């Protein structure tokens, strides 16, 4: 028995589903997860010593690659001085300043410990600011696991086919309206009916939790316009896209200023983190300045702040985003070519260094079209790639990420693996 299998048997005895986060259990690919021992750069190693080129990148944070020397040094240096004080530190101010410089719509920011905390708190704040209860979200978008967002959500809920989680009171979800992504007129219709009751729209400006789905021309602008007209807030959940789609996230890329922004992943450089920020006027409602309560024993944790800061310092260097985009394009073009040569029909949605493959004949623009993709093909693709040393997210509903550590050789090997996997699938 492999070490991974032995650990999996033990894990299932003591952890629900054997894991601490659902998609890690490889259920939708009907398999057993690999247990990971270490990772360096673009490579990840399981406990049995196998090496893989990693496109999960810890689900987004590892944009500079795993165990980057500068990030590890920053963590070590900070850890040697103590790991948590529950008191203000310089590094949290530095990270806040960096975030505010990068995101023109953020004037003040509050650090938390996860993306879930960021979105949950941003929603509370939006409700307090507008004194309204209703929230509009989009089918297939995922905003963490706070009660109000577990309605037609993406990520693990899409993977496991859970439309709404038990344990969430209907009294709460009756305030959540989930609409099709990219359907502006659907949003406008709801505003015409009950616009004055809507506290906010929350959206992934580029959806990343039903696979990557790009906003169509005018969609985000339309959301900005309609929220402004009705005095509702626009929240961009940039937990994935922040410092990924560009230095200033998707909002700078698309030129839209949301009222509130949620961040996570990259700003913690692989340590647990989240943040939410926005206009001073709104942020000033948060305790202790205002009465909207939100707190955290480990919020602004020095290790997380240092890892985040070190990561952002690397991303700030010239040409970094160009380089990431170039590598990713190289990869997606190579995959398209392999699909053409082997007669596999697929769609690739890509922006900056995030992308998804859909085994689908038609463009993928919302959750409905995502679900029309061939999931059996995905499973074959997943294992074909794994066998060839490529580690992908074990779900058809997740984004793939390219990091600064992925070399031309890694990209070349990945394209070859895609070609041979597709060929094998076709010849079956
Ligand atoms: N929002 C988005 C867009 C996400 O992708 C995620 C997690 N993948 C979250 C929120 C929740 O973040 P966390 O898992 O850190 O709670």
Summarize the structure.
By secondary structure, the chain is α/β, with parallel strands linked by helices.
Can you put this structure into words, describing what you see?
The structure is a single chain. This protein has 428 residues and is of the alpha/beta class. It folds into two domains: 3-67 and 318-427, Aspartate Aminotransferase, domain 1; 69-316, Type I PLP-dependent aspartate aminotransferase-like (Major domain) (Aspartate Aminotransferase, domain 2), CATH 3.40.640. The protein contains 15 helices and 14 strands. The strands form three sheets. It has a seven-stranded mixed sheet, sandwiched between helices. Strands 1-2-3-13 form a four-stranded mixed sheet. It has a three-stranded antiparallel sheet with strand order 11-12-14, covered by helices on one side. α2 (69-79) packs antiparallel against α11 (302-315), α3 (90-102) runs parallel beside α11 (302-315) and α14 crosses α15. The longest helix is centred in the last third of the chain and has 23 residues, at 320-342. The radius of gyration is 21 Å and the shape is globular. The model has no long low-confidence stretch (mean pLDDT 97). The chain binds 4'-deoxy-4'-aminopyridoxal-5'-phosphate. It is an enzyme of class 5 (isomerase). Its EC number is 5.4.3.8.
Strand content: 5-15%
Q: Which architecture of the largest domain does the CATH hierarchy give at level 2?
A: 3-Layer(aba) Sandwich
Say which CATH homologous superfamily of the largest domain is assigned.
Type I PLP-dependent aspartate aminotransferase-like (Major domain)
Bound molecules: 4'-deoxy-4'-aminopyridoxal-5'-phosphate
Task: Provide the spatial order of strands within the biggest beta sheet.
Answer: 4-10-9-8-7-5-6
**Sheet having the most strands:** 7 strands, mixed
Number of domains: 2
CATH class descriptor of the largest domain: Alpha Beta
Helix content, binned percent: 25-40%
Which regions have little confidence, pLDDT < 50, spanning 5+ residues? none
How far apart are the termini? 28 Å
């Amino acid at each position: 028995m492999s070490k991974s299998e032995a650990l999996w048997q033990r894990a299932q005895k003591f952890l629900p589903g054997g894991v601490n986060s659902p998609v890690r259990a490889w259920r939708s690919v009907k398999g057993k997860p690999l247990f990971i021992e270490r990772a360096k750069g673009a490579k990840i190693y399981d406990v049995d010593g196998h090496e893989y080129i990693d496109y999960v990148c810890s689900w987004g944070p590892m944009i500079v690659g795993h165990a980057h020397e500068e990030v590890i040094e920053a963590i070590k240096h900070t850890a040697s001085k103590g790991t948590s004080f529950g008191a203000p530190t310089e590094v949290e101010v530095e990270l806040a300043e960096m975030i505010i410089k990068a995101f023109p719509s953020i004037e003040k920011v509050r650090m938390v410990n996860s993306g879930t905390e960021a979105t949950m708190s941003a929603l509370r704040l939006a409700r307090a600011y507008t004194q309204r209860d209703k929230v509009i979200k989009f089918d297939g978008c995922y905003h963490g696991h706070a009660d109000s967002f577990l309605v037609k959500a993406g990520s693990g809920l899409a993977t496991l086919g859970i439309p709404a989680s038990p344990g969430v009171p209907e009294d709460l979800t009756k305030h959540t309206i989930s609409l099709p992504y990219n359907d502006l007129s659907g949003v406008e219709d709801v505003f015409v009916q009950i616009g004055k009751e809507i506290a906010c729209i929350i959206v992934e400006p580029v959806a990343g939790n039903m696979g990557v789905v790009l906003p169509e021309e005018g969609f985000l602008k339309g959301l900005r316009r309609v929220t402004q007209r009705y005095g509702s807030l626009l929240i961009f959940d940039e937990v994935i896209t922040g410092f990924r789609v560009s230095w200033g996230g998707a909002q700078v890329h698309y030129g839209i200023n949301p009222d509130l922004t949620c961040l996570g992943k990259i700003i913690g450089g692989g340590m647990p983190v989240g943040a939410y920020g926005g206009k001073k006027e709104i942020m000033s409602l948060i305790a202790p300045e205002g009465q909207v309560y939100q707190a955290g024993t480990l919020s602004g944790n020095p290790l997380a702040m240092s890892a985040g800061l070190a990561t952002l310092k690397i991303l700030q260097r010239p040409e970094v985003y160009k380089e990431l985009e170039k590598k990713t394009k190289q990869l997606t073009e190579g995959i398209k070519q392999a699909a053409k040569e082997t007669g596999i029909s697929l769609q690739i949605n890509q922006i900056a260094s995030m992308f998804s493959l859909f085994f689908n004949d038609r463009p993928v623009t919302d959750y409905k079209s995502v679900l029309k993709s061939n999931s059996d093909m995905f499973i074959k693709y997943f294992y074909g790639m794994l066998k060839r040393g490529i580690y992908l997210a074990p779900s058809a509903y997740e984004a793939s990420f390219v990091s600064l550590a992925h070399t031309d050789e890694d990209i070349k090997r990945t394209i070859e693996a895609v070609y041979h996997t597709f060929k094998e699938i076709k010849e079956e």
